[in-house]
Here is the input.
Amino acid sequence: MRLYSLGAAPRTLSNCHPHSHELWEISVNVLGEGKTWIGEECYSFTEGTILCIPPGMEHSKRSQDGFVHVYASDRRPNA
Here is the structure.
């Protein structure tokens, strides 16, 4: 796996609107709890939740009290 990007939300978020990426994304929730939608499925998240989101998969998050996450992505291997 080649590391492509690593980042963190610059502030506590309450909403992350639906979006997708061309790359795999691994997201680790480090603060807060709420709901995340990945495709058509809804999941609860808390501190320490790890999400692995495949390329092209729409996803979003919402939290009443806010959340902070860090993420990493790799380049999609050439087929």
Summary: The chain has no helices and seven strands. The radius of gyration is 12 Å.
